[in-house]
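=== RUN LOG ===
request id: a7f3
mode: sequence -> structure
chains: 1
length: 321
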Amino acid sequence: MHVGILHNSLSGRNRRKPDIFQEIYSTYSEVPWAEVNSPAEILEALKRFAQRQVNCVVINGGDGTVQATMGALFYHRPFAVMPRMAVLPAGTANLIAGDVGVGKFERNTLEQLLVQAEAMTPKLSFETRPVLRIRFPESREPLHGMFFGAGAIYHGTQLGIETKQSIGRLGEWGAGLILLKFLLALATGSRKGLNPITVGVTAGQSEPIQQEYLVLLVTTLNRLFLGMKPFWSKHSGALRYTSLRVPYRYLWRVLPALFRGTTHPLATIEHGYVSENLSELRLVLNSGFVLDGEVYRSSNPKEPLILDSPGELSFVRLKTE
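=== RESULT ===
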């Protein structure tokens, strides 16, 4: 593999350890790398990588950097053949790296990847994931990523942003603390940050349904933070769609099973629980939403957002001994 490295110095862990990879960049001077802090810089770097026949892009950044890279790859198409990806967990939450990351945030991880990539040894493995695309009703560039969330997920992300130097800095453990906060609010009857949102949902070929939802998520990942797998549908489809409708019942009895990705006899649509694997989902929502930790809002909330997948990416991983 011919490797090119995108380095985002503004991502969480890179800010805390700014020089961790500089020696490797100097030692492997033949490997192209680029300092990128914006989507425009990422696109320009990818164009240069394509000219140099790079076929594996290392992303040394957080979920936002991965998201911007996916957008450049699928919307602008700088490569004739889609390159492989290798994701270092250099951000704060590192949700994507937790599922398909190359390894730990250590200098040795990048060095081993460069050594193994040149020889394509059996110490490398590859995993494929679909990419999630969000198309807007207005003439606006689509977003690409791997995790969409609305309702309590949106409010929780805002809390993480507000507490960036405390809870938000703890990565996936911080996300776990935020989840615990919301669960405690449910248990005590508090509604702070838990106001249901009204969403019009069209799943696949079904008729549109407008209901209140406490949580709504769509992902192409196999696991979320702390190993959670809150999707239990057995049908095929690139998008894993899970929602909790209002009113819901038996929450405390079904949550342990649902977090593990297993079904529960009480987790039915009638009781507020939905899990489906879909090729397309249309959402009409008058509220903000989250894509890979970044918050957004449609400027035309009366028209649907269209969630689908434009294709797949192959992710490189170092096999553990």
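=== NOTES ===
The chain has two domains: 3-132+313-318, 147-291.
The chain has a mean pLDDT of 88.
=== END ===
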